[in-house]
Specification:
single chain, alpha/beta, TIM Barrel, seven-stranded parallel sheet, schiff base, Aldolase_TIM
Amino acid sequence: MSRDMKKLSGLVAATFTPLTAEGEVDLSVIGPYIDYLTEKQSVKKVFVNGTTGEGISLTVDERKRLAAEWCLQGKGKLEQVIVHVGSMSIKETQDLAQHAASIGADGIAVISPSFFKPTNADALRMFLKEVGASAPGLPLYYYHIPSMTGVALEVADVLNGIEKMIPSFKGVKYSGTDLRDLGQCVCYSQSHNCTYNYLGCKMKEMLSAFDEGNMTQARDLQFKCMDAITFAKNLGFDVAVNKQVMSELSGLALGPPRLPMLPCPISKAQTIAQKIKDTYCLT
């Protein structure tokens, strides 16, 4: 069934997956998590089961239960729920895409397979086409993250003619570092998105200042963000650390990461959280 394909814009929080101390998915945190995002961070769009959410470390059943809970608890609160459905198997990816459509998700995103990798842009487009055909009523986004997948095909090549091949294709979640390739993608399509989690309110302030022509305020907020991120990266800032920092700042019990990632030392997370609070004068 086809549905209106709303344009994805503004801040999109890449959500963490709450786990119990025993490493099991904890759905009870999703409701309070949504309230935190919408009420404290003014963020009403989420990206579920992605890298931040440890999606590839979860079973298909776990991913389905999480996606369903985000859609259920988000009704009337969230504006859009985008579900990452990528996996190593095209059959699993199609199954997750169909499930996302059945629970009322607002879009799906797909990473490239990373064991048997696509050898060129045509192969990747064919993979995306088959996934899109499984949920033709949902907007489809390609999630480009070569640091994790090892697939460094130029996205500009992947985009070439993709709308004719995949009518539901709506954009790219670009998590690469090739600024030339990114620039070509921006030239190809002028729309852009921003992803953030526990500093959503500050990022929204920065974007609003830019839109209003207040470059001084926008630069000040950007430099503060860069200062906090640089501080965190110098201490070692991966998904496990980021998850614990989110717990410290939000008060949500998100639990540990799933193996093979190791838990973050609480002291490190507290140090980074305090830096963020000091940088933005948060209480």
